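Before going further, it is useful to explain how the protein records used in this thesis are read. An example of such a record is reproduced below.

***
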Amino acid sequence: MKPELLAPAGNLEKLKTAIDFGADAVYLAGQRFGLRARAGNFSRFQLEEGLNYARQRGRKVYVTVNIFAHNRDLEDLPAYLEELQELAVDGLIIADPGVFSLARRYAPRLPLHISTQANITNKEAARFWADQGAERLVLARELTEQEIGEIRRYCPETELEVFVHGAMCISYSGRCLLSSYMTGRDANQGDCAQACRWSYALVEETRPGEYYPILEDERGTYIFNSADLCLLEYLPRLMAAGVNSLKIEGRMKSVHYVGTVVKVYRQAIDAWLADPEGWQCREEWLEELAKVSHRPYTTGFFLGWPPQQAGQHYLSAGYIREYDFVGIVREETPQGLWLEQRGPFATGEELEVLTSFGPNRQLRVEKMFNEAGEAIDRAPHPRQLVLLPGVAGIPAGSLLRRAKQ
């Protein structure tokens, strides 16, 4: 069985990057009814362009319609579902039974996937959704390897999708009220403020103003702050458990994150397909995953319950950032390479180039010019176009980063 590599597409640029770097499919949201309200998301025009880009390359596009809907949401939902069917997207990702029912009625030709927000944590829940006509189940992150295998045996004809990489939530598969209570931003309507990442202290009710830290550093403590998931080393065991689709979290993450993580998992999957018995997790893959912004990695619940590795990161809400993402190659011309700046860089610096295929390469910035043809020694402005003269052989869409000093 060839597993699907499923990548996040928070906007059109990330969709194209995910596909160029090896994703078999992407998941995204329209401008309503999805659980990432602050991702770029897609207008109808952008969705059409993204679908065309994917189809020309034989890839799939799934659309999230996974809010927990209130009555006020239902008025416009049928027309939106009909629009998605007209566009012939490859599947809808749904959490709410009412939305599922409407999708069966207004988009009957579209495959329906059950979102991780539906909290499928047991085989009977899986069988229930399969009996309703769901073609794929996105299992809860809180399942062990053994539990995934049991669900596969109980529902042998239903596709199973599992998160293998990215941020995790303090609450069961994202069902959290903390953001709504503290900020008025409803996580279950796609607008999470990530209040779990803030600094907290313990207060006893009869001693107001007295704050008791837990595992304190100079900024407080982070008792709700989850580590990031990484199951790359356990790819053969995921396959043995019967997983059809390996899902990367991160519609809010950068294009650098998307390109780097997708390329690593693409290489790992292809290596497993070529030699399942001899497959080993390569050190360079793990080194690449360390180059994207991330929290400490964990295997979550996959190896057992309770988690066999620390699932919480108590000391800080910050990310580990060993590299800075500084630019994207936009075009190679006879004059040289045009870059779009995504972070300040300067002449004399060594950059690492990540292409969609092959090994990384090093690039020293000897000279650069702005769009007016003026020589510059720094590129300080966001999305500034910069020419590196005399540089060739680096394809458009390649990503540039710089190691932190």
